[in-house]
């Protein structure tokens, strides 16, 4: 599968990519744990089938200190013992917030209550924004056929400048 269009070769595409990345940098500056950030991003990317984003978030999770076991079990988090209750709440929110079209009621009250139990207001805002932004990024990747495999941790660090 060949890349359909490289956003970074177009002035408007570059501006959009930089602003999208800039929002992600704001989320990273929140008190939401980096590992939670990466696990949530990885799970949404798996659901959406974005190989490029899966590649990014597997490698960024490892760079943040995640173990291969935990990274490998994200896809089956409900059937594993390696995630905390707070991480499980964040992963449930990621799934329900990503599968809006599949779940006519959207995010359940039960999931929302678990998120609010474990995350303060700023962390909750960061989680909701993260889920919205990773879903947008996944759509760029899937629509444009951006392939996974070549990402190096930190390679986009200067993009938001």
Automatic annotation (TrEMBL):
Q: What's the name of the protein?
A: Carboxymuconolactone decarboxylase-like domain-containing protein
Q: Highest taxon of the source?
A: Bacteria
Q: Name one GO molecular function term.
A: peroxiredoxin activity
The record's InterPro entries line, in alphabetical order, gives: AhpD-like, AhpD_core, CMD-like
Q: Where is the Carboxymuconolactone decarboxylase-like domain?
A: 26-96
Which species does the entry assign this protein to? Streptomyces davaonensis (strain DSM 101723 / JCM 4913 / KCC S-0913 / 768)
| Any Pfam family the entry gives | CMD
Q: What Gene3D superfamilies does UniProt report for this protein, alphabetically?
A: AhpD-like (1.20.1290.10)
């Amino acid at each position: 599968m060949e890349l359909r269009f490289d956003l970074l070769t177009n002035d408007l595409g570059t501006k959009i990519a930089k602003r999208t990345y800039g929002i992600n940098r704001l989320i990273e500056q929140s008190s939401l744990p980096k590992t939670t950030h990466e696990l949530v991003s990885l799970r949404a990317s798996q659901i959406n089938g974005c190989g490029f984003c899966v590649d990014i978030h597997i490698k960024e999770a490892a760079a943040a200190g995640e173990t291969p076991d935990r990274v490998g079990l994200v896809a089956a988090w409900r059937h594993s013992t390696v995630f905390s209750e707070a991480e499980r709440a964040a992963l449930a929110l990621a799934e329900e917030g990503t599968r809006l079209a599949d779940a006519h009621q959207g995010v359940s009250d039960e999931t929302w209550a678990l998120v609010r139990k474990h995350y303060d207001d700023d962390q909750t805002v960061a989680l909701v924004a993260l889920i919205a932004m990773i879903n947008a990024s996944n759509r760029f990747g899937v629509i444009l056929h951006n392939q996974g495999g070549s990402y190096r941790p930190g390679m986009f660090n200067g993009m938001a400048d």
